[in-house]
Amino acid sequence: PNDFINTSLGGIALGEMTYRLSQRIFNNRTSGFKRQKKETGGFLVDPLAGFNRIIDGQWGKVYDADPYENAPLAFMVDAGARRTSKRFEDVIDKGSSQFYTRLRLLYGDPFQDYQKPFSNFSVTAELGNDDSATLNTLQVNGLLHGKKMRGTQKSNNYFFVTMNYDYYNNASFNYGAQSFAAKIFSDKLIGKKSHLQLSGGAGVIALAAVPNKYLYYGEGRNYDYGPGITAQAGLGLNIADKLFYNFSYNGGWFKTINGAKSNYFLHTSIQELRLALGKHFSVAVEGGLFQLEGNYDDYPDVNDRYNFLRTSVGYR
Fold this sequence. Notes:
This protein is mainly β. It has helices spanning about 1-25, 30-45, 45-55, and strands at about 75-85, 95-105, 120-130, 135-150, 155-170, 175-190, 195-210, 225-240, 245-255, 260-275, 280-295, 300-315.
C-alpha cells in the first residue's frame, strides 16, 4: 500500500510537471541545429515524451506551435553560505558552516491560468554539503483548481487547491510527505508600488514517512508510514520591487499505520529579507527552524531541531 500511494501520487505530480516543462522546451516551428538542441533538451527533461515524439514522427517535423510552448517560466538560483545547529543559540558561535545552492522554478501564471490542473506549479530544490545528503530540501506544489474571489480595487483574493510534495533531509532528520491542500491567497496594494501578500490553508496528508530510530522492519526498512493533516501560512511584503520580506510556515502531523506505534509533528518556519540589485541580481539573508517531534508508545520520544542562517546572492 505504501508503494502504491507513493508511486501513483508521485508519478502524477512529477510526470505532469516534467511533461509540461519538456513541451515548454520543444519548439515545433524551428528546424536545423537549433531544433535538434531543443529536441534533445526536452528529451532529457522528459525521456518518455521525447521517445513518443520519435515514434510518432514529431521529432524534427515542422508544424504548428504546441499549446504549452509559450507558458510563462521563471527560474531563480541562490548561492551562498549557511550556518546550522540543533540549538538556536549556537548557530553563529558553534554552528556548522556549509555552502549551499537553491534552485526555484515557477511555471505558469497562478493569477491568470488557474482552472486547469497543473497550469502552474513551482519547484524548489536546495542542495549543499551537509553531512547527511547533497539534496536537503525538495518541494513541489502543483495547482489542481483555482478560483478568483471577491476583492476590491486594491486587493485581489484567490482560492487554490494544490497537490504538494515535501522532502527534508538534513543533519537532524529525514521527512517526506505527499499532500493536498486548500489555500486562500490575498494580494493588497499598499500605496502606489508596494504589495502585502497573505496566505493560509490546510489539507490532508495522503502519506508521510519518517525513519524510526529504534526499529527495522524486514529487509532493512526502518520507516514509519501514515496519513495525517497539514497546515500552511505565509506573509510577504514587496516594497517597490526593491526590498522583499517573506515569512512561511509549513506544519504537518501524521499517525503511523504501518510501523511502530507512533505519531509525528513537523514544523518548518523561514524568514527571508531580500534586496534587489537591478533587474536580475539580488542579495538575501534568511533564518529558520525545521523541527520534527516523534512520539512513541514503546520508546522515548524524540525532538529533532535544525536551526539555520543563510546568506546568498541570487540571480533571476
